[in-house]
Amino acid sequence: MLSLFDRDAVTAALTDPTLDPSLRALIGLRVWQVDTDRRRPLGEILQIIVIQPGDTSEVILEAVGFPIILEEADQPGFEWADSHHGWWDLCYVLTDDAGMLVFVPDHPNTDPSLSAYCLKFAGRPDTPASEGAT
């Protein structure tokens, strides 16, 4: 699990050569799209959670703070879902001016319920996340 709540954490992720390049590009794109008011701390605007292969539903629930897996959620709670180069991204509106992005790898070791949920609502990413994706 990777949690990015400030610009320093985002910068560290963007420059981490061990992270999947597609994930780094997706993080950079979404932060660029959302982080328009540099006077405010990023954590007041956006929280990013990166699910890792092997993360259990309990770990995911603890990190996100609410159920996102289909069996646990009454209905899809995201604002939108999309797929990008081996990753799904789920966007949640938390308040009028803050949101959360949850990035989920299309990987054989990703929680099967979460993968099915993402596939149902966002379709298949065009290329699977690498085996070593985090």
Give your account of this protein's structure:
The chain is α+β, with helices and mostly antiparallel strands and 134 residues long. It has helices at residues 7-14, 21-34, 42-45, 57-64, 112-122; strands at residues 2-4, 46-50, 80-84, 87-95, 98-105. It has a 5-stranded mixed β-sheet with strand order 1-2-5-4-3, sandwiched between helices. β4 (87-95) and β5 (98-105) form a beta hairpin. The longest helix has 14 residues, at 21-34.
What's a concise summary of this model?
With 134 residues, this protein is α+β, with helices and mostly antiparallel strands.
Helix/strand layout:
Elements: E1 2-4, H1 7-14, H2 21-34, H3 42-45, E2 46-50, H4 57-64, E3 80-84, E4 87-95, E5 98-105, H5 112-122
Parallel strand pairs: 2-5
Antiparallel strand pairs: 1-2, 3-4, 4-5
What class do helices, strands and sheet pairing give? alpha+beta
State which percent range the strand residues make up. 15-25%
What global shape is seen? globular
User: Which series of helices and strands comes N to C?
Assistant: EHHHEHEEEH
Q: What is the total tally of β strands? A: 5
What is the number of helical segments per DSSP (H or I, 4+ residues)?
Answer: 5
Poorly predicted tracts of residues? none
Helix content: 25-40%
User: How widely separated are the two ends?
Assistant: 8 Å
Computed over alpha carbons, the radius of gyration is 14 Å
Mean pLDDT: 86
**Largest sheet entry:** 5 strands, mixed
Neighbour order of strands in the largest sheet: 1-2-5-4-3
